[in-house]
Amino acid sequence: MSFACRICFFSVVMAWHASLAIATDSTAPLRALLVTGGCCHDYPTQIQIITQGLQQRVNITWEVFQGDKYRDREILVYQTENWSKGFDVVVHNECYGGVTDVEFVRRIVRGHTKNKMPAVMIHCSMHSYRHAKTDEWRKLLGVTSRRHEKGGRQLDVVNRAIDHPIMQAFPGSWQTPNGELYVIERSWPDCQILATAYGLDTKQDHPVIWTNQYEGARVFGTTLGHHNETMKASEWLDVVARGLLWSCGKLNDDGTPHDGYAGSGKTR
To answer: Which of 100, 124, 165, 195 could share a disulfide with 95, CB 3.0–4.6 Å?
Structure first.
């Protein structure tokens, strides 16, 4: 069996007791798929940060697919047309920029647009599939990015939509513990920019948090999250949790979860 076929497909233990303690009897947890893997990042640790951190904030259960480290891998989770069936939201935290198969990329996108599947797009997901000669992935993302500025420095994030439900509880400005700023070449028509950071190399602001809608699929995106210390920050976890709830239609206008969708408030 090839290395690609030995990709680890596993489930994170469901936090039923913690989530049901805060949910109403009629509220089932959101069923989330986290797709992760690829090059350049500490994905095993980030799996724990994302699943446990969001579980504290959202009534949610997880299934995780982690692909291998090769950036040109067409990972197994996307091999069928109905790859997203059975979930309420898909969280993408992957780095497969070397994939060039156009039909493969279109199949990923159809997994969202065909059934209006909500999406959360994190960091290198924006650079994934960038060498495929189609804009379908970028239309779903809401932005086009192919490179980043020099990394390893803090980013000054400015809240550009303080009245938006996702951003009401986010600081007016926030300095990340560490950072790698993605250069955004284009924002697509239905992208709403929620926060920006100034690029020292490019001498201009770049979106770092936004929402998008593409063919009925609601998308929350952030390029923040290269470093584990940024992902661990409460500001990052809080805004991603609200973004996930927004994408699922479970966020109130004041930025609080719908009844039954608040998290456990604690790790297992």
So the answer is: 124
DSSP assignment letter at 163: T
- pLDDT 10s digits, 114-139: 999 999 999 999 999 999 999 999 99
Q: Which two tokens stand for residue 112?
A: 């969202």
- The Cα 205–Cα 198 span in angstroms is 4
Among all chains, which residue has been given the structure tokens 């697509």? 188
pTM above 0.85? yes
What pLDDT score does 25 carry? 42
Pinpoint the alpha helices (H) of 23-135: 43-57, 102-113
The gap between the terminal CA atoms of the chain, to the nearest Å, is 36
Pairing of strands 217-222, 192-199: unpaired
Q: What is the dihedral of CA 163, 169, 175, 176, to 10 degrees?
A: -120
| Half-sphere exposure of residue 57: CA atoms within 13 angstroms, side-chain side | 22
**In Å, what is the CA distance from 10 to each residue of 58, 65, 189, 239?**
21, 6, 37, 26
Tokens standing for residue 5: 């076929």
Tell me the pLDDT tens digit for each residue of 141-172.
999 999 999 988 999 999 999 999 999 999 99
- Please give the CATH number for the structural domain made up of 4-247: 3.40.50.880
Q: Per-domain residue ranges for the chain?
A: 4-247
Burial class for 105, CB neighbours closer than 10 Å (0-12, 13-18, 19+): buried
